[in-house]
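Bug report

Summary: structure tokens for Adenosine deaminase domain-containing protein differ between web form and batch submission.
Environment: batch mode, default settings.
Steps: 1) Submit the sequence below via batch. 2) Compare with the web form result.

Sequence submitted:
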Amino acid sequence: SQRAVYAAEIPKAELHVHIEGCLSLELLFRLAAKNRVRLPFASIEEAYKAYQFTSLSDFLDSYYLATKVLVTEDDFRELALCYMANAYNDGVCHAEISFDPQAHLSRGVSLETVLNGLRKGLKQGKSKYGISTMLIMCFHRDKEARDALACLDKVRPYASWISGVGLDSAEAGYPAAPFREVFRRAKAMGLRCTAHAGEEEGCAQNITESLDVLGCERIDHGIQCIKDRQLLERLVREKIPLTVCPISNAALRVVPSLKEHPARDMLHSGLKITLNSDDPPYNGPAIISAYWAGIGAAYKAAATHLGFTRGEILQVAINSIEASWLSADQKKHYL
Ligand code: ADE
Ligand code: ZN
């Protein structure tokens, strides 16, 4: 449709996407066969039908289970290239991509394997599609902070390969504050900081902790701030970018439906929001009846389901460049 085309034609940065959340069903089944990993589904069609989630933690069970098919460097290369091909179709000029090292280290897959593979895929994607990328190493908030510290120590020799750190996984009951020392050390290593916060109901406090205790410059999701007037006003005043993912939020039932997503209200409140995908193949089936709900689908959903005008869509795309970790000179090139 006309709308889909115009959403794809707008140059945009994607700031919130998990590379493990980019395991397309095609790649999932191909790697499972190659690496002899048993999947709980007999076919792609069966998996597609099963991708109906009741909550963030319900989704995370499927997400972490699927990571088991990622074994060799080449698997990670393919995974990265799969994202890049889709990002190109969606008009992405720059992507800041999260990865979850703890999900691999705990299975005996080394950080070298993960990083070498991802870098190869991103390099191939850059030469093929011209998309620049950065990597964000995420820690699991539902594991001990000392686990995250050990992980940060492991990445020290490769610190120049990553641009920042983040915090993800199950949120309710897992506050940000215990990760103070992890983020302090990451910053001392020259890394930028972001964190998932205020994704789930009742978790607005994590937004405040992510800013005040972890020193984050950006917030992933952050949608729960709409229930806290003072916090919302603070985020507006301090121009904190929020990487919002409407289709993911609908798929993981943190909002009742796509139509009821607060993204447009957030924009009208003066928040610096961006639109992003989160986990494209997981979010598509239940919400837009598609195998892939990438950033293009998020922009399209904003226009068709959330009432964003063309001007508002353009504002979001501009926000995405401004909220990126590109240098001032690089930003000027896109704006
Ligand atoms: N890891 C992958 N997707 C996530 C999400 N939506 N929230 C928290 N952790 C995640
Ligand atoms: Zn996320």
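Above is the batch result. After comparison, the two runs are identical; trailing whitespace caused the diff. The radius of gyration is 18 Å. The first strand starts at residue 12 and ends at 18.
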